[in-house]
Structure formats: C-alpha cells, structure tokens
Automatic annotation (TrEMBL):
The name this protein goes by in its record: DUF3482 domain-containing protein
Pfam family, one: MMR_HSR1
GO molecular-function term, one example from the UniProt record: GTP binding
Annotated organism of origin: Pseudomonas helleri
Coiled coil: none
Lineage of source species: Bacteria, Pseudomonadati, Pseudomonadota, Gammaproteobacteria, Pseudomonadales
GO BP terms: tRNA methylation; tRNA wobble uridine modification
Domain of life, source organism: Bacteria
Domain G: 7-152
Any one Gene Ontology cellular component term annotated for this protein: cytosol
Length: 454
C-alpha cells in the first residue's frame, strides 16, 4: 500500500478553507464553519479512501492573519553573511521561540505544509489583491511545496477572478482552479484533482482512481435517488382508500389521506437528503413550494399547482379520466363510486382480482378515495427539482435549499408514465394502503421503469 497523498488547505482567515474540506469530503459535519475569522484553531485532517485504501489526506489549518509581520520576521532570521533559502528559513523559524508565542497559529500552518505533498491555497475571490495576500503567498512558498490556488466565492457577482489570475501569474503561480465550495461547478472536483496531478506527477494514478470512484458514486447516488422518487409516485398512484358514504366520515378520510401523502413526500425528501449526505433540516422553509418549514404543507393547495404550472381541471382525476361516476373532487383527491371507479380507472379485471370478490362485495355502499394525477405531477416536479438542487449543492452550504420553478414542460402536462397508470390498479403496491405487498416483482419492475422516465 502506498502512502496517501497529503494536502494542506491553507490561506487567509475566513476565506472558506474548512468549507472547502466539507465539500471535498462531502461531510457537512467536518470542523467548524463561521462567518467570524479565526474559527479553526487547530490542524484537523480527513481521509478519502477507495476500496479501503487511503488515497488522499486533506488537512484543514488555521487561517493566516498577520503574514506581513511574519514575512518581515522571516527575512530577519538570516545571520550576517548568511543567505538561507525558504525551507531553511522556515525551519529556523519553527525551531525558535516565536513559533510558540507570537506566531503560534502561523507555525501550525507552516508545519503542516512542510509535512504535506502540496498546499491548496484558498482565496476569497471577492477580495482585492492586497499586499497582505502577496506576503502570505511569499511565506507559504518558502516551504518549497507546490501550491495550487483555489478561487472560492466565484459564484458571487463581485468576484475579481481576472485580477487574481493576473496577480498569481506574477508570483509564478500559473495553474489555478475555480471551486466555489457552496455551489461547486459540476466538474469542479475533476478539475481540481487534474490540476493537482500536473503538479504532482507521482500522484497521478491515485488521483485518477479517486476521480473514477467519485464518478461511480455519483452515478449510483443518482440511480438510488430516482428510484426513491419513483417509489413515492407509485405509492401515491396506487393509494386507494374506501370510505363509507357519509359526510363526516368522508371528510375525515380525506384529511387522513392528505396527511398520509404529505408525510410520504416528506419521507422521500428526508431519504434524498440522507442519500446526498445533507441534514434533514437542510431543506427547510423558503419560498414556495417549501412553506412553514415543512416540505409538504402546501401539496394540496391549488395555488401550488398553478405556480408550478401543473394543469388542473377536468379529466385529471383517474376516475374521471376513465369515465367513471366521479361525483366529488376534493382538491387533489378524488372521491368516486367505490370499486366501480377504482376498477375502471385501473382496468377492471386486475382490480377485481386484487381486491378479491369478497372484498368487492363489501365495498358496495362505499366510496373510494384516490390521489389525483395533478398531485402526482406536482410530487414528481418537486422531487426532481430537489434532486437537481442536491446535485449542485456543496456540503459547505449553510442556507436552506431553494427550489426554483422548472423551465421545462416535463411532468407538467402530457400523458403520465404507463407505470403510474398501471399502479392505479394495484392497491397492494402502495405502502399507504393496508396490507401492502411491496416486494412484488412487478412493482419493482414498474419502479425501475418509472425511475428511467423521471
Ligand atoms: N457564499 C459562499 N460562502 C462561503 C463559501 N466558502 C465559505 N463561505 C462562508 O465563509 C465563511 C467562512 O468560511 P470558513 O470555511 O469557516 O472559512 P475558514 O477559511 O475555514 O476560516 P478560519 O478557520 O476562521 O480561518 C462562512 O460563513 C462560510 O459559510 C463560498 O464558496 N460561497
Ligand atoms: Mg476554518
């Protein structure tokens, strides 16, 4: 087993070093991140492994605060007639008493950089290139290790990327990467590791393995996510509750089913957040469609459907579409003639079989509650948007997820996928129904098929 590549993440205080580590390790709990300077006080490491083999070690370091004074101090360490090179000067500094007193924090950074193969120099690209940053780079370069500048905050409109590129080139640093740790570019990690491979030729293989592994994980995550969404939709499409035709009983059933669907959506949201390594409160309150801190509160609000551009109106209800005697549409749910509505909507035979004739007899005088197509569309749209947001989110992000209205027309109109139509006829496919049979092969097959279409 070869030694893992070690990188020191260094830079001025408050530029997002700890944030970068969070994003690269996909660990929202790494270290402490704060808008206040001098948050990180000690060196802390994280390790990335592939198949149990550690390939990369990243070390977070305290922020540099007073590089001007330190550079001054370093330059005066040469004895008369002596002309030390950078690493020799840094070594003398680290042996001296000031490294334990006045420059204690700085010493931790330099020690870590000396012990590492290279440094990632994090930059707040919104800042002008001040003398203190140039001095910082001089001090860090004295360690004699390759430095790769990482431009953070590049999604901010006030970034000064050209200015920084120019200044870095003048200091002999021509390779650099843009990597906003809150909103990292899709190919950000690839670019970062590829640039490192140019600086560290002997680590090329390890970095490539790391990249391949991350790519495979990204694909696997995406597939699992689509399956989670497909399961939610099948659960809701197949949901079917019979209700005695009596006003108060009906109303109660309607409320219960709405709650059940909302909770089911919330479960999907939480599963997606977990899959992507975010916390369950990361998708908290924001503008529509996330209200009141809970994801699903407005699911049955006609306004939500309108805002997302989902078509509501006649013909959206499963029963109505099939021409069954639907006598009441209750905002997102359909209350239809029992058995009849269900049977016709989903194909009479299958439904009759799945209910069993004894049960069918019992259903006489009952009515049936199902989830409208428009709600299925809305669920699909929202989960797809959430997935989109999760794919683009860095693990350093602290704001709650904002989900924008999608531009495309998918799911808003047109025919619903076959899998959902089919699910209408199989109440046992829904975990929201009593006695579900969730491991049925046909259900799994439809979930796979639907996941392809999301
Ligand atoms: N918008 C945005 N905010 C960021 C980004 N990176 C970091 N931040 C924020 O900047 C602040 C500082 O981030 P930290 O990661 O604590 O910075 P640091 O360099 O580790 O700071 P010290 O440990 O104090 O030296 C926090 O409020 C972060 O949320 C970024 O790419 N974009
Ligand atoms: Mg920090």
């Amino acid at each position: 087993m070869t030694k893992p590549l070690t990188l020191a993440v260094v830079g001025h205080t408050n530029v997002g070093k700890t944030s970068l580590l969070r994003t690269l390790t996909r660990d929202v709990g790494f270290g402490e991140v704060s808008h206040r300077p001098s948050t990180t006080r000690h060196v802390e490491g994280a390790r990335l492994s592939v198949d149990g083999e550690p390939l990369l070690e990243l070390y977070d370091t305290p922020g540099l605060e007073d590089a001007i004074a330190l550079l001054d101090y370093l330059e005066r360490l040469d004895r008369p007639g002596e002309r030390l090179d950078g690493p020799a000067r840094v070594a003398r500094f680290l042996d001296g008493s000031e490294a334990r007193q006045r420059f204690e924090q700085e010493a931790k950074v330099l020690r870590q950089l000396l012990a590492s193969d290279a440094g990632l120099y994090v930059i707040d690209a919104r800042e002008p290139v001040l003398a203190k940053y140039r001095d910082e780079l001089s001090v860090l370069s004295s360690c004699g290790k390759p430095l790769l500048p990482v431009l953070n905050f590049v999604s901010s409109p006030q970034h000064r990327e050209p200015e920084w590129r120019d200044a870095l080139a003048r200091l002999g640093l021509h390779a650099l990467v843009r990597f906003d740790s809150v909103a990292p570019p899709e190919d950000g990690e690839r670019r970062l590791y590829e640039s490192l491979a140019l600086l560290l030729e002997h680590s090329r293989d390890a970095l490539q393995r790391l990249l391949n592994d991350q790519e495979a994980q990204r694909e696997a995550r995406k597939r699992s996510a689509l399956r989670l969404i497909a399961e939610l939709l099948i659960d809701c499409a197949a949901c079917r509750r019979s209700v005695a035709s009596e006003k108060t009983v009906e109303q109660q059933a309607i409320n219960q089913l709405r709650d059940a669907v909302r909770q089911r959506e919330q479960r999907c949201v939480e599963a997606l957040l977990k899959l992507y390594g975010f916390r369950s409160n990361d998708a908290a309150a924001s503008d529509l469609p996330l209200l009141d801190g809970r994801w699903g509160n407005d699911l049955f609000n006609p306004e939500t459907l309108k805002q997302l551009g989902v078509r509501v109106g006649s013909g959206v209800a499963a029963g109505a579409a099939a021409g069954a005697g639907v006598d009441l549409m209750v905002g997102g749910l359909t209350l239809g003639a029992a058995a009849l509505a269900g049977a016709i909507a989903g194909g009479a035979l299958q439904t009759a079989r799945s209910y069993g004739s004894r049960l069918l007899g019992k259903l006489k005088g009952q009515r049936e509650l199902t989830v409208d197509d428009s709600v299925l569309r809305l669920l699909a749209l929202r989960q797809r948007q959430l997935l989109h947001a999760l794919n683009a989110r860095g693990h350093a992000a602290v704001d709650s997820i904002k989900v924008a209205t999608p531009e495309d027309k998918t799911w808003r109109e047109g025919k619903l996928p076959e899998a959902l139509k089919k699910a209408r006829a199989y109440p046992q496919w829904s975990s929201l129904n009593p006695h579900p049979k969730l491991s049925q092969a046909e259900r799994q097959a439809q979930i796979e098929a639907l996941a392809e279409q999301i």
